[in-house]
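To: structure desk
From: M.T.
Subject: fold request, one chain
Message: Could you run this one when you get a chance? Sequence is below, nothing fancy, just the single chain.
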Amino acid sequence: MGPEAAVNIIYRRELAAHPHPTERRAELVAEYIARFANPYVAAERGYVDDVIEPRDTRRELINALKLCLRKKVDRPASTATSPCNSRVKGEVAMVLREALWEGLRETPDGTGMARA
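Reply: Done. Structure tokens follow.
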């Protein structure tokens, strides 16, 4: 919600009773902006970590990106390359292959395999 809409809601009765509501609305909007719509107020209350001035934005952005380049993330070992898992996978594959071959027999004419 913008400052104008907030002032219209908060000071609705005061604006309706004022002899010059447009002038009073402009004063209240300016006061609202100075008091609430301000990054320093948000920083004081802990809503933002830091307020970066426009002239410092490029430097801050470059420093943040450099920090990301140096970041190291320890990831858990991949299950596909783990020696234990590859051994287990190999054993499972061997058991499946043996079970498959048990159900297949060579055809009498020697041209291929057929289910027994």
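Reply (cont.): The chain has two domains: 3-70, 83-115. Let me know if you need anything else for the meeting.
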